[in-house]
Amino acid sequence: MKSVFLISDNVITSLGFTTGDNAKKMREKCSGVLLSEDHFISPTPFFVSLVNTPLLEEAFCRLNSNAEYTRLEKMIITSISDALNKTKIDPASGDTLFIISTAKGNIDLLEERLNDSFPKERLRPAVMARVISSFFKNPNQPLVVSNACISGSVAILLGKRILNEGKYRNIIIAGGDVISEFTVSGFQSFRAIGSGPCRPYDEQRDGISLGEGASTVILSVEPEYNTSIAVKGGAITNDANHISGPSRTGEGLFLAIDGALKDAAVSAEEIDYISGHGTATNYNDEMESKAIHSARLENVPMNSLKGYIGHTLGAAGIAESVMAAYSMKNNILFATAGFSKMGVTQPVNVLSDCMEKKVKKVLKTAAGFGGCNAALIFEKQ
């Protein structure tokens, strides 16, 4: 089986338009989760992390496209372009495949103000993915992963497995979601949105902060990249507990973690850092802490980045994996914004301040509606 390397990346969020922009703000413990009074999204003010629209338009204009693209398509195309600019990979090559992860795709096109702005078929994620891959003149049918909040993590694991089969040399994996009236009203109906910026694992946590953004990783089996970060393994499970609530025991996520460790041939004792899911809902953080305990990883430093950028849904697994790779390359672990006092019954080692640490092996966890769970293992070469 060939080794699969993460050779380039990008993150676009409220904190900036590059991985470095986001890392700089996280080092400074700056949060992009702010109070919004946009009545097109919600009739009542709420805290959310939004991508700066004028800056997005400016960045997209630099790509010199004459065609019309939706807000989400612009975010994803801009993210992919930045990641590609740091490689020699030809996106138009038949040896390159595109995988797009998203929870809701162009869902904002359902809003009355955007109703007639694009063909209805653009609401279909498969059509959106083809629009994006066509921008880069790629000849292959793109794949779409839409599996709630584990979409990005699943897309990375899928990309690794496809590269292991030897059909492609490189895979461009990009994820994204926008914040719309539909998205916000859905989470509001569950009473899942916090009263302020989210506080993962904290005793005062009272719900999530939504976020929009796009992120990209480029995976390759080319030997010239063997000094980069390797995707060592991963696993996916489903506990089927409830359509919108995670398992109360953490068993599903534990099985994903255990499966990822076995897939990567890595022991729990070798894990140096955990990039947690940490949504700041009572149920998720409690479930996640139980799973971490079951895997005997409770003393490993861990964080959640959602206090900085919100829950970016279909982009979350990719964006948080990119920032984990940044931590591995730069020996810096980010603090968990909003966390000050342990609020889960099974204590875990949540970072309240940035920490310098040499990191070789990382566990990334994710969980989502429908009882789905995912875990990935990365290793610095």
From TrEMBL:
GO MF term (any one): 3-oxoacyl-[acyl-carrier-protein] synthase activity
Claim: Membrane is one of the keywords in the record: no
GO biological process, one term: fatty acid biosynthetic process
Matching Pfam families: ketoacyl-synt, Ketoacyl-synt_C
Keyword hit for Mitochondrion: no
UniProt keywords, alphabetically: Transferase
Top-level lineage group: Bacteria
Start and end residues of each Ketosynthase family 3 (KS3) domain: 1-380
Gene Ontology CC terms, in alphabetical order: cytosol
Gene3D superfamilies, per database record: 3.40.47.10
Transmembrane stretches, start-end: none
Annotated family: Belongs to the thiolase-like superfamily. Beta-ketoacyl-ACP synthases family.
Name of the protein this chain belongs to: Beta-ketoacyl synthase
Organism: Sporocytophaga myxococcoides
